[in-house]
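Each letter names a residue; structure tokens follow underneath. Both lines appear below:
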Amino acid sequence: MIDPQYFDDLVTTATAGLVGDEILLASLDAEQTDFVRFNQAKVRQAGNVRQSTLGLDLIEGARHTQATVELTGDRETDAGRTAAVIGLLREQRAAVPEDPHLIVNTEPASTTHIGADSLPDHGDAVAAIVDGAGDRDLVGVYTSGPTASGFANSLGQRNWFQTSTFNVDWTFYLRADKAAKAGYAGFEWDDAAFDRSLRDAAGKLDALGRTPIDLAPGEYRSYLTPAALEEIIALLSYGAFGVRSQKTAQSSLLRLVAGEDHLAASVRISEDTAGGIAPNFQEQGFLRPDEVVFVDAGRATDALVSPRSAVEFDLAPNGASTDESPRSLAIAGGDLDADDAIAELGTGLYVGNLWYTNYSDRSACRVTGMTRFATFWVDGGEIVAPVNVMRFDDTLYSLLGSKLEALTSEPEFLFDNSTYERRTPASAKLPGVLVSGMKFTL
């Protein structure tokens, strides 16, 4: 995989070819990923992906043009490709208008972070997954390896952020729509932790074998696992926490931001860069603080501010990417032990996963979606039977506000398992949520 020195040398060479008052911004996304796909607890596909993509932004005054270059790892080839693309950008720049929201970080701040590589042996991890599945039908994917993000500019700034992680995203499949979904991710493999995940999923799979029940629409006392909560929070991440969406009245949290509504006093939501796996800088080289707090004690506080929004609304940027979506979102835990969640639920719904989430009323932050995989009816603190698919429709002001009873004490570290174009260095730390009522419409 491309290393920091290679990236530095490449940008230094490209900088030497600039003319006049040109400024060059360069960003890098790189990965070296081993992956294995499983079906029926057998290896069905195995491979490796090595790729590095260089983003270029050539600026002169208020005009700029952008392009990407796929790097080969060969110095002469990559330097030649980069120089050729810069030449094309220079020609195109003459035809583009001035950008009124363009901003350049003129105070270079260089940083380097290379996390420890404590990844498990690839063969050992695959063997643990296959052996752990036993005779169950395990379907899933295992990914492992380092990812890196880099930034450099012709003003001398250099930033590098590299982590080595693994992620097992799997399902124990029973039949039809009955399956128990689980995951295990981290930096260093722990056999005991993986075994706990396997046993938990196996227990749910056994419960799924019971005769399912249908529940009438209504409001039910419910416990949402961190994975279920993630589906709701992921929807909010598209715009709700960004200053542009708030200033233009598009955020689903406008009532919270305006002080017209609030969440429970125990709720604290933040962009926890220091505790995540995303780089501590964004694509224009502005550094991210260790934390940006969106909600504190149930009340709105700060928002993500990208460089372009900073210019547009006369604010200070705080390291947000252009889309102003969180990369390391965290909700603080409460005082409920996760092992006691079902007992504390007593009688009600255990919601293992949600999907197809969308807004049914954006201005009210009302979200709808379907239950998925292991959702159970619980009675007397014990799982009784699986529940057939239901549709929920409820507001964040209820689920994390008026109906919130408890949050689990240890938020779960959930890695983004999407691999569109490349592995995504994003994560969330979320607790389980116990609510006195969750509304179901179908």
In short: The CA atoms of residues 104 and 273 lie 22 Å apart. The domain at 4-208 is CATH 3.30.2290.10 (PmbA/TldD fold). The chain has a mean pLDDT of 96. DSSP finds ten helices and 20 strands in the chain.
